[in-house]
């Protein structure tokens, strides 16, 4: 059998042995404790009579009652001892293993030792002496029993002593971690059995030694059967399963071989009894199980051989992994019937069934071999790689595989050569197709990349044919000679391509490289007045350097100049980076300058150009002063850059101030609709004054900043430098633009706010008969708004102009005909600007539309104009002359009451874009006029009805006095009239009638709180009565 490859490290094996030794010692110690406890507290106890045994034996033997009791006690002891002996002789070991036999003898030794020790007790010995003296016949029977007990006890003790020497080996057979421990244990165990056979007085006979060996053989068989379980064996890793089967067979074989070795030693000694044991009992089962283990090991080898063939190499070569997986599935199915056996293969009585299983297995193996050979034949006709197939065939020479498949595959070299010829044709086709424009690896130059590509193609066919030389007879065949010839033909054409590429590059390099190195460092182009510098480093020079490096790596000899340039690559690239950085910094500075600043810094720019002129006039790439030129250029650029940065910093400060001027808000609105238009304009004017003061202070700091720039450039601080006059003018124009944008933006925003939906101020509406007017008037509102616009433009007077050619503010000028000095500011230009005028006109139009919309809304109130336009006295006089009825009065009164209610329901505020109308004064005036009309009508009604009421008063005095008595005698259904008369008496202020009504009311139970209701009824009657014509009132 091949050596096991899954052996554990020596350290781990030693730890496992120490663990097993500790467990065995612990079990042994526990067994000693159990035996000791059994001896001390055994179930068998000899009963000793409770009597005085102190007197001498003769004295006790002369006492009949004592002898009688002791005789009965001795008979009981004999019975107990006889029963114990019989029970122990009937007992057998409880388990079939060898440890059961040791336990059996230990248990017998413990029981007999406990009984034997009791017989040696002083009291027991005294009783036996008394009975021997008193009744020797009785004691003869007991002595025979005790002698037999002693014999059995000595035997058990001796057997325990000898078998204990084998206890560790027996435990290893049952509990060892793996078969290696058992293999190490069996030789020592057999030597131990030989010593027991020689020394022991009881285990030197066949009837004792054969059963013990049978137990050992059973233990070994059971252990192998448990480990080499066919239902789980094939699920383990292949090497682990092989080790189990191999070691199991080795254990069983070692058992037999060790037996015969020890037997031979005994025979050679000639002193001891020979081992002539029944071999069938000892080795029949183990030999059969060893053959089963061998079969299982062979099955695992077959599986391994198939898996070795059907591996990833065959998949890579054939390109048909699906078909290979199908064959592997068939191989996996070989062990399924074995895993599903319905019987124990280690059972010797199932030998016939196992042979049928193996026969079926071998038949299926042959079928799979035929399937595999057929697949290989088909696959080798369409190989993917000749080299991979060749490697696979060489590998199969050195690995274990099926002999039939292996021998068949060794015949496939011609197929590999045919595939190689196809690969050479493919490579040749790729070379011919792409030779003019080969695919290059990133960053590779054209020539070296082309040669590298050609060599990679050539290596693909060269490497394979070099591998073929490992099998010389392969290339000596006709197919091999044809493949070799095709290889040489393609190789020559590739070599010719490579040489031509190199020669052409060498000629071009020797011609162009000196010219490239003589080029100036910089080239200049002129864009208007600005010089644009560029680094004059040809890309071809960089490509020549790259080609030189790669070609040297490929083993070519390069021109000396190209090699020197390539060696200076880092230096040249540093120069290129330095020049690029220099040009980039120069160009970035130029890009920062506008035309005015360019003229301002013309001297400094010329100084930088003077330094840069060396790079594009004198120095080339062969020069030694390139580094010095870069340093001088960097210093000049740094100095110029510092100056430009300071100018740009001051420029940014000025821009921020101009931006704050441009973004100023000249119309800061107060809390919306909380103030009138005058307060609104006044608050805006106050906020505008604050902002203009702040902006004028910022404006006044622009001049000092320009003077600071003058000191940086001209080293003067006058503010009047002639060279800076255009620069002053440039900033003055920017200031004008900012002020213009500020004014236009604010006017536009104000116009948008006027036509927006947020009310900013409120105006009261008042009634100034005969017209409805605004307070303040429309014209005043218009003037206030336009005044705000004019003030927003006039705020530019705070920004004084500079004197011509300077950045100094112009002082006030005295002009003939003017009382006050004239301040030169931007106001004159801004106020006359067309856009400002257009925006002011737009605001004027917006206000006119707004006021027109307000007037249209107020025209709705003109429907109430008759209330205050007509002369109320004249109208009332004409109405009274017509002697109108109560219905006419009621209609008039209802009309004016409706007018009051309608006006009260009108909203007191009306928002019209930016304007909020306060309608409360107007509504109050309309309601007051309506109430005045109601009052006039009431006065007129009072005058016209006073006389009629006095006449009615006199007539009711008479009528009510007579009618009162009739009413008192009337039924209850007339009592509702009670209230009416009571009201009449109250109305007429007649004490007599009032007293009578009150007395009647109290008598009838009419409560005082009912009187107002009754009064209402009477008022209704009176009004009805008054409305009836006089000729009908008597009725």
UniProtKB/TrEMBL annotation:
Residues 67-629 form the Dynein heavy chain tail domain. GO terms for cellular component: dynein complex. It comes from the Eukaryota. One of its GO terms (molecular function) is dynein light intermediate chain binding. This is Dynein axonemal heavy chain 10. GO terms for biological process: microtubule-based movement.
């Amino acid at each position: 059998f091949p050596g096991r490859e899954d052996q554990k490290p020596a350290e781990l094996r030693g730890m496992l042995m120490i663990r097993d030794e500790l467990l065995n010692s612990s079990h042994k110690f526990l067994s000693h404790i159990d035996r000791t406890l059994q001896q001390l507290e055994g179930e068998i106890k000899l009963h000793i009579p409770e009597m005085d045994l102190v007197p001498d034996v003769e004295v006790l033997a002369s006492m009949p009652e004592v002898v009688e009791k002791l005789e009965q006690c001795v008979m009981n002891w004999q019975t107990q001892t006889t029963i114990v002996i019989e029970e122990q002789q009937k007992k057998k070991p409880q388990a079939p293993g060898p440890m059961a036999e040791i336990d059996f003898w230990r248990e017998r030794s413990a029981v007999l030792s406990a009984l034997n020790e009791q017989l040696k007790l002083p009291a027991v010995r005294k009783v036996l002496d008394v009975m021997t003296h008193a009744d020797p016949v009785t004691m003869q029977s007991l002595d025979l029993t005790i002698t037999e007990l002693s014999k059995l006890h000595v035997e058990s003790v001796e057997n325990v002593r000898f078998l204990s020497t084998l206890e560790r080996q027996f435990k290893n057979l049952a509990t060892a971690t793996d078969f290696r421990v058992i293999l190490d244990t069996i030789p020592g165990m057999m030597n131990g059995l030989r010593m027991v056979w020689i020394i022991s007085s009881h285990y030197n006979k066949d009837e004792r030694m054969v059963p013990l060996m049978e137990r050992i053989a059973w233990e070994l068989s059971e252990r192998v059967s448990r480990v080499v379980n066919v239902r789980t064996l094939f699920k383990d890793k292949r090497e682990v399963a092989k080790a189990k089967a191999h070691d199991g067979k080795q254990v069983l074989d070692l058992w037999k071989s060790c037996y015969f070795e020890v037997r031979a030693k005994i025979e050679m000694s000639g002193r001891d009894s020979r081992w002539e044991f029944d071999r069938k009992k000892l080795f029949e089962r183990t030999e059969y199980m060893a053959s089963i283990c061998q079969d299982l090991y062979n099955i695992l080898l077959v599986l391994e051989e198939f898996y070795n063939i059907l591996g990833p190499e065959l998949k890579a070569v054939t390109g048909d992994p699906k078909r290979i997986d199908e064959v592997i599935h068939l191989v996996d199915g070989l062990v399924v019937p074995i895993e599903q056996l319905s019987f124990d293969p280690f059972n010797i009585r199932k030998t016939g069934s196992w042979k049928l299983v193996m026969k079926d297995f071998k038949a299926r193996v042959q079928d799979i071999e035929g399937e595999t050979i057929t697949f290989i034949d088909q696959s080798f006709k369409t190989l993917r790689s000749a080299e991979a197939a060749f490697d696979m065939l060489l590998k199969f020479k050195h690995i274990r595989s099926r002999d039939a498949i292996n021998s068949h595959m060794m015949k496939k070299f011609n197929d590999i050569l045919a595939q190689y010829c196809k690969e050479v044709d493919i490579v040749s086709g790729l070379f011919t197709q792409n030779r003019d424009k080969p695919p290059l690896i990133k960053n590779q130059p054209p020539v070296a990349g082309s040669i590298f590509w050609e060599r990679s193609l050539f290596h693909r066919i060269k490497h394979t044919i070099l591998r073929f030389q490992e099998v010389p007879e392969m290339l000596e065949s006709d197919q091999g000679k044809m493949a070799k010839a095709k290889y040489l033909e393609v190789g020559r054409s590739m070599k010719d391509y490579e040489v031509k590429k190199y020669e052409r590059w060498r000629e071009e390099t020797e011609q162009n490289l000196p010219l490239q190195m003589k080029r100036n460092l910089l080239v200049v182009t002129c864009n208007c007045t600005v010089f644009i510098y560029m680094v004059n480093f040809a890309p071809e020079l960089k490509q020549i350097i790259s080609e030189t490096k790669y070609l040297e790596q490929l083993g070519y000899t390069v021109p000396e100049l190209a090699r020197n340039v390539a060696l200076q690559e880092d230096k040249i690239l540093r120069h290129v980076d330095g020049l690029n950085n220099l040009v980039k910094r120069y160009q970035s500075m130029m890009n920062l300058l506008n035309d005015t600043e360019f003229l301002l810094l013309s001297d400094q720019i010329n100084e930088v150009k003077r330094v840069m002129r060396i790079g594009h006039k004198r120095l080339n790439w062969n020069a030694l002063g390139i580094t010095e030129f870069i340093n001088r250029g960097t210093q000049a650029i740094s100095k110029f850059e510092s100056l430009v940065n300071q100018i740009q910093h001051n420029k940014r400060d000025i821009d921020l101030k101009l931006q704050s001027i441009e973004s100023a808000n000249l119309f800061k609105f107060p809390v919306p609709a909380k103030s009138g238009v005058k307060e609104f304009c006044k608050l805006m004017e106050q906020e505008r004054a604050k902002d203009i003061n702040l902006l004028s202070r910022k404006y006044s700091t622009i001049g000092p900043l320009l003077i600071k720039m003058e000191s940086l450039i001209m080293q003067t601080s006058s503010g009047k430098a002639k060279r800076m006059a255009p620069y002053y003018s440039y900033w003055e124009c920017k200031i004008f633009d900012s002020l213009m944008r500020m004014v236009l933006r604010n006017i536009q925003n104000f116009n948008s706010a006027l036509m927006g939906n947020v009310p900013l101020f409120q105006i009261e509406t008042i009634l100034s008969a005969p017209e409805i007017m605004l307070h303040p008037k429309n014209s005043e509102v218009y003037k206030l708004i336009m005044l705000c616009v004019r003030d927003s433009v006039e705020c530019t007077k705070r920004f004084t102009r500079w004197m011509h050619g300077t950045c100094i503010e112009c002082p006030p000028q005295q002009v003939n005909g003017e009382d006050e000095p004239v301040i030169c500011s931007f106001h004159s230009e801004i106020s006359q600007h067309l856009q400002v005028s257009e925006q002011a006109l737009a605001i004027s139009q917006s206000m006119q539309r707004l006021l027109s919309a307000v007037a249209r809304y107020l025209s709705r109130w003109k429907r109430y104009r008759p209330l205050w336009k007509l002369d109320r006295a004249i109208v009332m006089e004409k109405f009274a002359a017509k002697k109108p009825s109560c219905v006419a009065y009621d209609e008039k009164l209802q009309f004016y009451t409706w007018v009051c209610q309608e006006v009260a329901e009108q909203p007191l505020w009306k928002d019209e874009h930016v304007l909020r109308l306060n309608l409360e004064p107007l509504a109050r005036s309309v309601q007051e006029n309506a109430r005045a009309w109601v009052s006039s009508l009431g006065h007129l009604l009072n005058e016209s009805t006073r006389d009629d009421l006095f006449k009615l008063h006199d007539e009711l005095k008479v009528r009510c006095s007579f009618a009162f008595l009739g009413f008192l005698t009337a039924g209850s259904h007339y009592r509702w009239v009670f209230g009416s008369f009571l009201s009449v008496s109250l109305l007429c202020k007649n004490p007599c009638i009032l007293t009578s009504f009150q007395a009647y009311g109290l008598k009838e139970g009419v409560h005082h709180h009912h009187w107002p209701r009754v009064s209402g009824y009477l008022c209704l009657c009176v009004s009805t009565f008054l409305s009836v014509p006089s000729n009908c009132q008597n009725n």
